[in-house]
Amino acid sequence: MIRLEPRTDPSQTMIILTPILAVLATMVVGGILFVTLGKNPFEAIRMIFWDPLFGEHAFYYRGQILVKAAPLIMIALGLSFGFRAGIWNIGAEGQFIMGAVMGGATGLALYPLDSFIVFPLMVVMGALGGFLWAMIPAFLKIRFNANEILVSLMLVYVAFNFLIGMVTGPLRNPDGFNFPESRSFQDFPAAHNPELWAGTGIHLGVLTTLGFVILAYIMITRHIFGFNVRLAGQAPRAAKFAGVSPNKMIAICLGLSGALAGMAGLFEVTGPAGKLTTTFPLGYGFTAIIVAFLGRLHPIGILLAGLLMAVTYVGGDIIQSQLSLPKASIQVFQGMLLFFLLAVDVLVNFRLRISKRISK
Amino acid sequence: MKLLKTLMTGAALVVGLGGMAQAEDKTKVGFVYVGPVGDFGWSYEHNEGRKAVEEAFGDKVETMFVESVPEGADSERVMTQMALDGADLIFTTSFGYMDPTINVAKKFPNVKFEHATGYKQADNVSTYSARFYEGRSVIGHIAGHMTKSNTIGYIASFPIPEVIRGINAAYIAAKKVNPDVKLKIVWAYTWFDPAKEADAATALIEQGADIIMQHTDSPAAMTIAEEKGMYAFGQASDMKQFGPTARLSSIIDDWAPYYIARTQAVMDGTWESTSTWDGIKEGMVGIGDFSNDIPADVQASATALKEALISGATHSFTGPVNKQDGSSWLASGETADDGTLAGMNFYVEGIEGEVPN
């Protein structure tokens, strides 16, 4: 009989070390996976973690890591506030889509207006799109106490079908042979989010993300809002007495995460994705949940976790083409990362007690 | 410490030299797939083409591939990665790779690119596709004969010309042999989603269809047809193993001859940017074996239709054909030109429902 017993005083060092241990465990077990697939595990691990950063073509991959990491980090930052306060927005993917659609549609409506105002307006509308979409679960939670996990998650599918409706209907490229996609933002300079320096991958979304990391850091460590968020999560009753309105907290946390997800969607669709299509949502909104927890809900942690996830994506494609590995094996590898994170987390916070006696 | 350093330098040298030797001798060919190679449909057949290239050239060629690559920034990165890794020729096998292919091709003028099913070309970008609609005519002909409920179910992906062309070709051929035939169409808005495809097949059968056709990539509909005792056709690959009794025939994409020819052209230095649209005649579209459930006379007439398409004696779109609204499209004996086919956005007369807009 194995029981889990809460540790009264979990080691602070271990809590910080958890992600590193999880990565190491992933490398070991992932290595075994690659051996069973008949590949050299050291080569595979090197290609995933080393080559994108320091390999022969790292000059290109480093920029691409930023491209992959930026939306993950931006969304995860927004989610982290709610997660700290015990408000579970699982539907960032839907807010990401709605931000991209609303911001993108704003730009497309102004086509071919060549004005500097177009892009900033699109960014604002993108954030607004995500914000409004997140207000649905917020309203239902406040008014009817509906579970925000279910509502926000279900709204992802609504958003996706809305996207299909938009790109096969009003937002479809009139010169695009009926293909379900919008005009390319690449061909509409005023609405384009290009690489700022050729070859670096860095676009406005990447810079904005860095800005948000700093802002979030200040908020969570120095600002009363960060304190209230933590209080609401750890001691809801105390928070109430301190004058933190739970309803306000729900609205702010969901709204903030929705706005950031929406903005990430707008930057993605006008830059790396290039246009609104049915295939541009790649699950960033879901992966960001992993990033948020991998980063311990801390802005700097999220920054590092987002970069790490991005490295495994870029590296995963490298080993696929170099070692002819199936995509599924790389997804298993990425899945291990979350599994080990949770496993190590449990062991840091709980003690395993093995007793012979079977309790009744 | 010193020993370690020496060892590492040695290893680096070996790796470096190995890389150089490869770069000199072998032609490197990259393949980017939109689905998993185990989809037993679209990507599976492209991967069969890749294997055929390896078989044909042996040591002279080295292939690489990445599967399930999302269209967009990821595909651009994967193509760039292949080009950086020394690919001489890269096949990008989905429509959504069009702009990424053009973008990457600009950065690597010495690398040749081949984009499937698109319409944008460049000095180092060719396009290629198959006249799948010819295959649709043959299976439409069979379906028209075989349906007892006079209802054929059609799982469509996206309302693009390629898909609408297939619907029209199948309907025209079915209607010719069975004036009462009806087509029920479900739009799945996906190329590959086994769960959605299975749902679509179930819905069509519930609406009275006893034969399922599909323009999506997985064998899910075939397994549903097998389960419910209905008929279906293999799409992209033969799919016989998924519906031993349900499968009537199949449209098979055979990219091998094209991939081998294009790789050869790169080796010979004769590669040029071209636009290819091959059909049954050239072998890019194949028709799978006929099931024994198909009566001999229908097998014979289907074979005759196939032969006529090969010889050019007939065309999938031969007048008189009206558009859905009743206006005349093709006069008697007239055949559709490639331009109209490439941009087809209307149903022919007799098909119910509207092209989604």
Main features:
heterodimer, A: 360 residues, mainly alpha, two-stranded antiparallel ribbon, 13 helices, globular, B: 357 residues, alpha/beta, Rossmann fold, 2 domains, six-stranded parallel β-sheet, six-stranded mixed β-sheet, 11 helices, disordered N terminus
Over the alpha carbons, how many angstroms does the gyration radius of chain B reach?
Answer: 23 Å
Distance between the termini of chain A: 11 Å
* Spatial gap, N to C terminus of chain B: 69 Å
**Principal-axes shape call of chain B:** globular
CATH fold-type name of the largest domain in chain B:
Rossmann fold
Mean pLDDT of chain A, to the nearest integer, reads: 91
> Which CATH architecture of the largest domain in chain B would you pick?
3-Layer(aba) Sandwich
Secondary structure tally, helices of chain B: 11
Largest interface: A-B, 38 and 40 residues
Quick one: biggest sheet of chain B? Answer: 6 strands, parallel
- CATH class group of the largest domain in chain B: Alpha Beta
What this model shows, in words?
The complex is a heterodimer of chains A (360) and B (357). Chain A is mostly helical. Helices cover 70% and strands 3% of the residues of chain A. Chain A has a domain at 69-286. Chain A has helices at residues 12-36, 41-54, 58-84, 92-110, 118-144, 148-168, 204-222, 224-234, 236-241, 246-270, 284-294, 299-323, 327-349; strands at residues 2-6, 350-354. Chain A has a two-stranded antiparallel sheet. The radius of gyration of chain A is 22 Å and the shape is globular. Chain A starts with a strand and ends in a 6-residue tail after the last strand. The model of chain A has no long low-confidence stretch (mean pLDDT 91). Chain B has 357 residues and is α/β, with parallel strands linked by helices. Chain B has 2 domains: 19-130, 3-Layer(aba) Sandwich (Rossmann fold); 132-253 and 285-342, 3-Layer(aba) Sandwich (Rossmann fold), CATH 3.40.50.2300. Chain B has 11 helices and 14 strands. Chain B is globular.
